[in-house]
Design a protein that fits this description.
about 400 residues, mainly alpha, 19 helices, Trp/Indoleamine_2_3_dOase-like
């Protein structure tokens, strides 16, 4: 496996690392997209309807195909940046551990006065895409720790609230990754984990996140102390994304299918089983989370992100794109408001699912057994969302009352 200590300032024109030969694109068939033969939990594997001989259709050429790894990064996140970027590493850790937002702001201002933020800003253009994502995660940690997550770094009003040098760095990173709303759950979770130990062999990214013990790169709890609830919530989201890969594959299967296609109810039944399995997984995560230490500071961070609609996992947004719950509940504008925190290619994929799964959603207005299966899929997604919301509330709340709330 590639380690997380890649060069942070390597230009994009550098010689690319050797990769496995790309697999040819999978042909569209009448049955649901197959699931990997290894690295999948038995419950989720059975839920997806995988047979023992099903082949893995992933290929390196389809780097942004959600069937390959969901919305996880293509490779494990960068564990430690090097060179001048170690300054950003240190600042992110200091901000996350600061006892208050004022202390985090003071740390950022000291870094600005020392010229560190300016030095980093001058090096943004040299970042490789992978290291730009790593820098964005650290910027996201600093922004929420300082209470600046709701700011537009390019707005004039932001200059009265936040350090100018940090805003310049934030804007440059946003331009580098072509995404100005990245301070949200995807950056805080999906780019802030690493396997506790180096795997003995190369594993696909989703399998790595499912099967290995994960640890946060930037911890919200001090080193040497148990992970806090915020740390565990972020890791739970990463594992949810990794286990939800079959949901992305079934979404592609349902795209463009007619409601009366014989394979549509079969795919919907598998979608129901996957969502039930994901809900069971969240309930298991809750047991560990409820026993973890919590502070008012971390609860404030979670509450701030929740208030901005920046906590819904991408995998739940993918299920919504298929079943249309969010569009009915909050209107199209509300759905796009949630998606603004995702990268452009992820938003484009979700919009495509909105369009291509529209025929399947007409089952909501029909009768018969197929319509009943569709409604069951909607109900299972609502239950999954409620379970996730309860998990967030447990992470933000002072009392370990998850079990009573979820009953």
């Amino acid at each position: 496996m590639t380690t997380g200590t890649t060069t942070a300032e390597a230009p994009e024109t550098a010689t690319p690392a050797r990769r496995r030969p790309a697999a040819p694109p999978a042909q569209r068939t009448g049955r649901p997209t197959t699931v990997p033969r290894q690295g999948s939990g038995p419950e989720l594997r059975a839920a997806a309807g995988a047979a023992p001989g099903d082949a893995d259709t992933r290929g390196d050429a389809r780097t942004h195909d959600p069937r390959a790894h969901g919305f996880l990064p293509e490779r494990p996140p960068v564990r430690s940046m090097i060179g001048t970027w170690t300054l950003l590493d240190a600042l992110a850790r200091t901000a996350a551990l600061a006892p208050s937002a004022a202390d985090a702001v003071a740390a950022v201002e000291r870094s600005g006065r020392a010229g560190e933020l300016t030095a980093l800003r001058q090096r943004v253009s040299r970042l490789s895409p992978r290291n730009a994502e790593a820098a964005a995660m650290r910027i996201a940690v600093i922004a929420v720790a300082c209470g600046w997550s709701g700011l537009d770094p390019q707005a004039p009003a932001a200059r009265r609230c936040a350090d100018g040098g940090f805003l310049d760095l934030w804007s440059a990173i946003a331009h580098r990754i072509d995404h100005d709303q990245f301070v949200a759950l995807p950056a805080l979770s999906l780019h802030n984990w690493a396997p506790e130990r180096k795997p003995r062999r190369h594993l696909p990214i989703d399998q790595l996140a499912r099967t290995e013990q994960l640890v946060p790169i930037v911890r919200w709890a001090p080193e040497g102390e148990p992970l806090c609830r915020l740390d565990r919530l972020m890791l739970a989201v990463t594992r949810l994304e990794a286990h939800g890969i079959w949901l992305f594959r079934l979404a592609e299967t349902l795209a463009g299918r007619a409601p009366d296609d014989s394979s549509t109810p079969t795919a919907l039944r598998r979608l129901v089983r996957i969502q039930h399995a994901l809900r069971a997984q969240l309930c298991e995560e809750a047991a560990e989370l409820a026993d973890a230490p919590a502070t008012a500071r971390q609860s404030e961070v979670i509450g701030t992100l929740a208030g901005q609609g920046a906590l819904e996992p991408p995998v739940l947004q993918a299920a919504d794109a298929v079943l249309g719950i969010g569009g009915r509940r909050m209107g199209e504008g509300g759905r796009q408001l949630l998606r603004r925190h995702l990268p452009a290619h992820h938003r484009a994929w979700l919009s495509a699912m909105d369009r291509h799964c529209a025929p399947v959603r007409t089952l909501a207005h029909r009768g018969g057994p197929d319509a009943a299966v569709y409604r069951e899929a909607q109900e299972s997604l609502i239950a999954l969302r409620r379970t996730y919301t309860t998990l967030v509330q447990a992470a933000a709340g002072p009392a370990p009352a998850y079990a009573a709330a979820a009953a």
